[in-house]
Design a protein that fits this description.
The structure is a single chain. By secondary structure, the chain is α/β, with parallel strands linked by helices. It has two domains: 38-50 and 195-312, Rossmann fold (3-Layer(aba) Sandwich); 56-194, no CATH class. It is built from 14 helices and seven strands. The strands form two sheets. The chain has a five-stranded parallel beta sheet with strand order 5-4-1-6-7, sandwiched between helices. It has a two-stranded antiparallel ribbon with strand order 2-3. It is elongated, with a radius of gyration of 29 Å. The chain starts with a helix and ends in a 5-residue tail after the last helix.
Length: 317
């Protein structure tokens, strides 16, 4: 009797276990699983020369409407172009037969970069390099400004002190005035001389609004930019839609690191689980796109809007 009762007890327990397991399996298959919810793919967007672009007309406001023509004229005369029939056409862009002579625009860029490189920063350099459009390391002042270590006011104090001590570095007073105006524009008013880059901004908006048939978002927009800390509020006021259509902002000046630091590629909103797609980065600098591959992030060149749209699977018409 004891044996039979023990046997029946075991059989009953096993049967109940089978029934319970089956019921749970059926309930699981019928209920919509939370894990089946689509995880949006992160898309990181650069700001300068990607979502935004410089407006040349606005630049003249800071460089000086009267300084610029005088500077251009003095440069053309110094280059011996005054007698050339193409002189007036050569003032801003290179002509095909004058590839050995920099245009005024290129000359101003060189003045900015070469002179800025000579001015030391009081801050300690990071253990990685931040490259510019020319794939060369950024000048120390520009680097530390983008990392949030120096404010625009700090930089201009250092610039003014350097100009006062090194007047011989400039061909004439007008050139030093133009250089200082460039510095002030970049370090204190950069967002004011920008405007929306229409086609890429449209893609940015499309990413925010894209959903699947079940209403799940396809993408998560992340602003991922080397941008100064002190200018974020001005940026929000001038370009509110950037923040309306973005889910996260990775700003170098606020984070204390800049691209190509790993944090700029690996930080995502909390709702995106580990192991999900590392997504994309849309950037105009080749170095930032190349570095993205280290973190399994697909780089899309902002200089080719059609390729960006194709990479994201969007139709811009």
């Amino acid at each position: 009797m004891i044996f039979e009762w023990s046997y029946m007890k075991k059989l009953t327990i096993i049967s109940l276990g089978i029934l319970l397991t089956g019921s749970l399996s059926q309930a699981t298959s019928l209920a919509p699983a939370e894990s089946a919810k689509r995880v949006p793919v992160p898309v990181r967007w650069d700001l300068g020369d990607t979502l935004l672009k410089v407006d040349g007309t606005k630049c003249l406001k800071f460089l000086g409407r009267f300084n610029m023509p005088a500077y251009m004229a003095s440069y053309l005369i110094a280059q011996g172009w005054a007698k050339s029939k193409k002189a007036l056409c050569s003032w801003w862009y290179k002509q095909e037969d004058q590839q050995d002579r920099p245009s005024v625009k290129d000359h101003m860029k060189e003045l900015f970069k070469n002179t800025l490189t000579k001015i030391a920063s009081p801050c300690q350099a990071p253990d990685y390099e931040i490259l510019g459009m020319d794939n060369l390391p950024l000048p120390a002042l520009q680097r530390d400004y983008l990392l949030g270590k120096l404010s625009g006011e700090n930089v201009m104090e250092l610039v003014d002190a350097w100009i006062a001590k090194n007047p011989e570095q400039f061909a004439h007073k007008l050139q030093s005035s133009i250089f200082r105006a460039q510095m002030n524009m970049y370090f204190n008013h950069y967002e004011e001389v920008n405007k929306y880059n229409p086609k890429l901004f449209e893609l940015f908006k499309m990413c925010h609004e894209a959903h699947d048939a079940d209403g799940n978002r396809l993408f998560t927009n992340i602003i991922c930019s080397n941008w100064p800390k002190g200018h974020v509020e001005t940026l929000k006021a001038q370009f509110p839609e950037l923040f309306k259509y973005s889910d996260m902002q990775l700003i170098s000046g606020e984070m204390g690191v800049a691209k190509p630091h790993a944090a700029m590629y690996q930080t995502v909103p909390e709702e995106i689980p580990k192991g999900a797609s590392n997504g994309f980065i849309v950037d105009d600098q080749q170095n930032n796109l190349t570095c993205a591959t280290q973190y399994n992030v697909v780089g899309l060149d902002a200089n080719n809007v059609e390729a960006v749209a194709h990479g994201l699977g969007l139709d811009i018409g």
